[in-house]
Amino acid sequence: MRGERSDMSEDEDGGRGGAGGGDGAGDGGTDTPVPFSDQVLENVLENVLQFLSSPQDRNAASLVCLPWYRAEAQTRRELFIGNCYAVSPRRATERFRRIRAVVLKGKPRFADFNLVPNNWGAHFQPWVSAMAAAYPWLEKLCLKRMSVADSDLSLLAHSFPNFKELSLICCEGFSTAGLAVIAEKCRHLRVLDLIEDYLEGEEDETVDWVSRFPETTTSLESLGFDCVGSAVNFEALEALVARSPALRRLRVNHHVSVEQLCRLMARAPQLTHLGTGSFGSAAAPLLQGGGCSVVDLARTFAAFKSLVCLSGFRDVAPHCLPAIYPVCANLTSLNFSFANITAEELKPVIRHCHNLQNFWVLDAVRDEGLQAVAATCKDLRELRVFPLDPTEDSEGFVSNVGLVAISQGCRKLRSILYFCQQMTNAAVVTMSKNCQDLVVFRLCIMGRRRPDHRTGEPMDEGFGAIVKNCKKLRRLAISGLLTDKAFAYIGKYGKLVRTLSVAFAGDTDLGLRYVLEGCTQLQKLEIRDSPFGDSALLSGLHRYYNMRFVWMSSCKLSLRGCKEVAQRLPRLVVEVIRDRDEDDDDEGVQKLYMYRSLAGSRNDAPSFVEIL
Amino acid sequence: MEGGGSDGSDLDNLKATELKLGLPGTGEQEKLPSILPRSSKRAILEANEGPSKRNSSEIKSVERDQKPAAKAQIVGWPPIQSYRKNSYQAMKMEAEPTGMYVKVSMDGVPYLRKIDLKVYKGYEELREALEDMFKCFSLGEISRMNESNGYEYAITYEDKDGDWMLVGDVPWEMFISSCKRMRIMKGDEARGLGSTP
Question: Known InterPro entries for this protein (chain A) (predicted)?
Fold first, then answer.
């Protein structure tokens, strides 16, 4: 589950610019020889700086003076690159010579929702090539929204003899063939986490990658493949689990039936994180006594003393759920977001989960289910409620009632993602007052531009209360009927907001202006289908170099306005992305993606991307 | 993308008129989730292949028809990741995810039927449904064995031990949990089962 990958979450990433910060102190690798006393200073500095871990601290240290810059560059072990196009691989590898771990992010987040055409970019290939030469001792790699080919994985496997951890999040372009090479060649592999990736060729011949792990005892600690669409060789998987004594996290895909899961669990009672796959029966329904019975399953779970995180439940048979009762009290994280269960089915489970901190669930449990959560999970930090029927006109299963209940029961809430058909200002205001610790507030009212269903008013006051009362707020996603007033509130009170997502909101350019002028910490701005035009865009010129990116689609931008931004800010890459059926001569800009960069215009832009 | 309003019914009509080898309502549904990736590129690639990729070309034609209608559909709204959307679609399409489908054969009838036992609340409903299903074949009413006179058929089932039992003896819940398949037996054979001690 995503909860523990907090270092990858959009609201907790490190540093402004990562490798790009500190550039003012000069390029890495000057030609003049270093005086002796400075050399001593650098050695001392290096010994001290190696204890600095946060990228922000490191970026700050590197700005002090040249010796500090050099010492910091020598001692940095983890490289965080929030936008793969912000800096070239060569520049990054030249400055930082001793990197052991890399985090690399690619496409803008709206790519998750099909707004970025295929083949837009974010190719891993140039990075892996550069790193293969520069970082032979690389151990960890974490990629998010990158395009990764099998050949890249192969190069990775062959170039880094000490490679230990690979996490691929929301990536695409690779297949089971690539996984096979990783399994076979990375003999010290501890972590292989595939999270929400799209594998290629799932309908074709897939490779039996699980069989490729070394025959001997492995050092695997974490293996997650719940997003892999094709079935894996179960016998090989079972044998792998049996010879991986260090395994703590296992997430299987939906092809693994509950009977098979039973067998896996018997091999690995030391697991802390378990992704249960289908949790449904392969053959006849469990009720008919085919295979593992519910009682046996419960007994198996009861043996799991260390289990803290449960996910999966892709085809869950509700009568199997009682099997997890023995572990509920220890759970801190539970992902039911693929479990189509009712409130009645949820209640007996959630009643045991006093220690739950992260809970993902489907709105099928309704307000009633959320009330049950609120009644028990007093320690809840993160809640995500996903819509079973993600369309605008579906029946709303959760409402303001559920939101208020959660706010009353879960006072320590820090992060919420809530999908609903409609909402009231009052409920949002209540949450803003009850949950003062909120850092992430994402409310998605699926009905576009829907007002407060009780008063008929815009949702301005609700979101206004959130930014006003939740003083720690860093990430905000707004929806519903919103006027410029909402943006005025955000600009006035959202001083810590780093990420803002806007859809179908606002009246005039003023709205965007308020945000660009007021939100001094703004890093990531993604806007769609809102009436903001060139003058609003131009009002943010002072802001864009301090931001990771700006995305604006289906707004009121024109080529002229975007070109002016590109002209005035030479270090900003301004991309105009066109859909296939768009007219090339059209003055209007449908999709704008702009980001600061030390690398200039990228040379791998496809034909439908115009860089101004 | 999900269809909404009139767009959805147009698609339904289109799909309904398409020729398929399988029985109506089968086949396409299982394939649908795995072939509906977030990118249309795969559908386009597969459409170039032969008739063996029937399902994907169906998808492609659905997608193509969706495109002009899709202007009314909003791309990427609500903001749910495609893989999640696809999973949810698959979950909804299996109307009863834990349905208990069992085969029903009737003596003398060339093909079998399948029914979902969970749909029925009791034996009465089941009997009515079976009568309805096989009414064009039965010469008389399919009666329960308890009635003393005049029955043409008897409804029997195979339980998990492999034995053929008469339907109606055990409580309904127990019956649906142990029934693996059913057989509507004809005349003489049936009489044998019905004899009460």
Answer: COI1_F-box (IPR041567), Leu-rich_rpt_Cys-con_subtyp (IPR006553), LRR_dom_sf (IPR032675), Transp_inhibit (IPR041101)
